Amino acid sequence: MEVVIFTFAALASVAGGLGVIGSRLPVRNALSLLLVLGSLAVTYLLLAAQFVAVLQVIVYAGAIVVLFLFVIMLLHKQLGEMSPDRLRWQGPVGVVLAVTFLTLILLTIRFGVGAPTAPAPAEFGTAESVGRALFTAFVLPFEVASVILLVGIIAAVVIGRPAAQPAAAVGRSAATPVEASRR
Fold this sequence. Notes:
The chain is mainly α. The protein contains eight helices and no strands. The model has no long low-confidence stretch (mean pLDDT about 80).
């Protein structure tokens, strides 16, 4: 049964990956990415890593893809359609990168298949093991990451604030808001 579920998850992941790189519409690209991330969550469940699967759905499929969709919609409204001749170099660079990536994958498969690997511990990926690792061995990086996220949130609030009026403009208009609305 696990092989069947894995096969469907793998096919959905490959189809979503092809949709990410093959579609011309950015919203369809983001939705294809959602399919890939959901398929990865199923794969994590098959590996008995429940906590990682839940994080995959909540953080990546939930928050990140929604953020991508908002950014796509905002930028599309502001920039409009880009002219196709602006990115003439994109096709050849994409082909070179794809050939390089495929070559690296084939070399890894050819020379890395027989390499001995250590099996993952039985409690790998559970909520208890992740919590224990975060709050013992990785407590400093965890706290540094939280401070960096806090700085990012504060920066987003400061950047998103409406611009204050210059002092000269405020001094010229001495009328109250009610009087200004009657004019």
